[in-house]
């Protein structure tokens, strides 16, 4: 996880992700690439107020170009200025961590996927928003699409992290057939954080805890995990059980394997994946099952 991409819309949440990415890059001796996606003129014009209008509040200059072209040039200039400010901030927050910046002109999801391929990204670190119902819908759908289509792991950050020292990892699963495909990704996570304790968690609604623990032990043996604990918790819903357990062990990271086609594993329904990725959790890392 050395080549890190941080999509930013200059919101507080994307800044939280930027801070986590810098701490992760310092831990892995990696690099950070800041990405802002400018939408096509038709979409961007509707969001012009997000960037505070023309640069420095001035009027658009006379030009033979179209209004859309002038607008995009000014928007690009303002965007590069804001990215440059973040790079300067990174020098103070994480001296020695290389930080680059790039801009894609595209739809948001497509722009992120293009940048992943173009820059050979190992992991995407992105902020998760969502406060009202409509806002949550749009953010969750973007996050879900990226989780489903990104060829690399996605680390979702919602809240500011005073530090990102991963000592406790929660890995929720049902530890059945699908779980075998999660082993390679989990091994990579443990290699990145070799001193972290991995909690293999199963959320149950009945009394099958003993059988579950046997499956967890078999999974740990197959994955050759050396620093792990098994956990079984009873809850009304999977997301509620994960949240309860995460608080109980004071987890620093939640790791969720997903299917590439749907963006979720058989164990996780859409609503659960979105809740875990955008709720009041520590950072959540998703990756595709092998």
Automatic annotation (TrEMBL):
<comment type="similarity">
    <text>Belongs to the universal stress protein A family.</text>
</comment>
<dbReference type="InterPro" id="IPR014729">
    <property type="entry name" value="Rossmann-like_a/b/a_fold"/>
</dbReference>
<dbReference type="InterPro" id="IPR006016">
    <property type="entry name" value="UspA"/>
</dbReference>
<feature type="domain" description="UspA">
    <location>
        <begin position="1"/>
        <end position="158"/>
    </location>
</feature>
<feature type="domain" description="UspA">
    <location>
        <begin position="220"/>
        <end position="287"/>
    </location>
</feature>
<dbReference type="Pfam" id="PF00582">
    <property type="entry name" value="Usp"/>
</dbReference>
<protein>
    <submittedName>
        <fullName>Universal stress protein</fullName>
    </submittedName>
</protein>
<dbReference type="InterPro" id="IPR006015">
    <property type="entry name" value="Universal_stress_UspA"/>
</dbReference>
């Amino acid at each position: 996880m050395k080549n890190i991409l941080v999509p930013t819309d200059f919101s507080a949440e994307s800044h939280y992700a930027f801070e986590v990415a810098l701490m992760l890059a310092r831990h892995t001796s990696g690099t950070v690439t800041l990405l802002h996606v400018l939408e096509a003129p038709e979409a961007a014009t509707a969001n012009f107020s997000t960037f505070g209008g023309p640069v420095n509040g001035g009027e658009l200059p006379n030009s033979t170009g179209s209004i859309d072209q002038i607008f995009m040039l000014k928007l690009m200039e303002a965007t590069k200025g804001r990215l440059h400010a973040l790079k300067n901030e990174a020098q103070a927050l994480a001296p020695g961590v290389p930080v680059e910046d790039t801009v894609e002109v595209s739809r948001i999801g497509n722009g992120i996927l293009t940048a992943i391929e173009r820059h050979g990204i190992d992991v995407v670190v992105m902020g998760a928003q969502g406060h009202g119902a409509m806002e949550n819908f749009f953010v969750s759908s973007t996050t879900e699409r990226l989780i489903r289509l990104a060829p690399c792991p996605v680390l979702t950050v919602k809240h500011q992290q005073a530090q990102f020292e991963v000592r406790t990892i929660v890995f929720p699963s049902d530890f059945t057939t699908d779980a075998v495909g999660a082993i390679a990704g989990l091994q990579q996570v443990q290699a990145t954080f070799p001193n972290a304790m991995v909690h293999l968690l199963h959320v149950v609604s009945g009394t099958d805890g003993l059988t579950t623990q046997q499956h967890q032990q078999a999974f740990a043996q197959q994955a050759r995990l050396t620093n792990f604990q098994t956990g079984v918790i009873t809850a009304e819903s999977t997301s509620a059980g994960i949240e309860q357990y995460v608080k109980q062990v004071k987890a620093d990271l939640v790791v969720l394997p997903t299917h590439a086609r749907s963006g979720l594993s058989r164990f996780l329904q859409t609503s659960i994946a979105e809740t875990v990725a955008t709720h009041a959790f520590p950072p959540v890392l998703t990756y595709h099952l092998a």
